[in-house]
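> tool_call: predict_assembly(chains=two)
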Amino acid sequence: MEADPGGGAVMAFLMEQGLGESTDVLVIHEDLCVGCDNCEVACAETHGGVSRLDRAGGASFASVHVPIACRHCEFPHCMKECPPDAIHRAPSGEVYIDNTCIGCENCVRNCPYGVIKMAYPAPKKPSLFSWLFFGAGSGPGQHHDCSHSDDKTALKKAVKCDACKDLAQGPACVRACPTGAAVRLEPQRFADLISRQKGGL
Amino acid sequence: MRVAPKIFHQTILAYRGFHYAWWALGLGLVSWLIYLIPNYEQPANGGTWQGYTLGTVGALLIVWLLWLGIRKRRNDGGIGTVQGWVSAHVYLGTTLLWVATLHTGFQFGWNLHTLAYGLMATVIISGMLGVWAYLVLPARMVRQRDNRTRDELLLAIVEVDRQCLRLAQDVHPDVGAFVQSALDRTVLGGSLLQQLSGRDRSSVEIRGGKENSTAQRIVRNRNQGQVIRALAERLARSPGGKEAVLLQELLWLFARRKTLLQQVLADVRLQGWLQLWLLVHVPLSLALLVALVLHIFSVFYYW
């Protein structure tokens, strides 16, 4: 079955991952993914230094990989019990967390897919010159560990994918993928995805 | 929901219906036509008007091809997608070999100009290997990992090791020490060449020589072969009972361990080959830029 899985098996896998309630999900074709993590870098670079995507995490089946990233559920579990009501759905459909988050972690507990994480704000990136010659901070594309902060006044807040709703060009992860492995799909297109998987690239 | 681009997974070659293949073909044809225009003053070379035209096109192409390194790091905007840039990079980079060859008029020598050409050809050929690696190796990696990540494979090895150690406490101390040694002396990773070879360099410490000898020696345990053989022999000599059951379980665990280790080694090997071409492509691209500047400078300096 796994060597030559039928479309039904792939669809069952997608449903097992909870994609039935998604509205916009990142799907990676593993036959194309070279593991460069440009998607994560692009996500971090366009979201204040904190990536909201874990490419290597998540489940795979028949070369379809569902990374750990928000799938913008139709009825978002994360919205329940948010004290400051900081989680919204944009008119264009994206579920996002605004700046009023108080860091209570209710959304982290409520999300069944583990796509929300708590992070301190990343420090400002040093200039290329300072990084190159004086080793200041993290360089271009380098990850910053946001699980702790030197700033005692910094507040840990919930962060998650907002599908780059504020970027006119579209999701940074997809645009940054050099091999075309990353695409965002609505559930209505899963059947197309499967038929293309079976037909080969 | 905001409009998601109506694209599915496409390879860099098939991007937008081979869009940039047509661009490359057109550029190649135009370059050839320029080359074919008769020049009655001198034979084809880089110094004719055709040569200068093709040289200018080639130089601009090289600068644009190098710009990919900047574009892929600009995540806050930029024209097109990185995949589109890569697709164009592949096709137009391949065409550069044709354009630059026509530019030379097939005149080569032991000089700076031919050095620049040689560097360019090396960069393009390494890029072709990169395209092959990007199109072929990721799928091989997925198949051989059985839909698991490398971290999951390593965690599975840790779990098998934990079970081996638990069983090793209940078997004969010699076997226990042997099992412990096999676990301790398992090697993954290593130098670049060792990773690229994918060979298992694990070893195990065994009691050597005669019966009752306490001398220890270290032997190779490639693919857990030594430990599996030794456990099988021990099992064959075993009178049965609990010891035989434990040995049987250990044998099963080491067979499982062998498979997992082979999967990790193969994954590391393929990952290495997937990235190896970049070690040639990127540094030589920068060397090419320097050689190109010197080539242009020397041409106009000695005009």
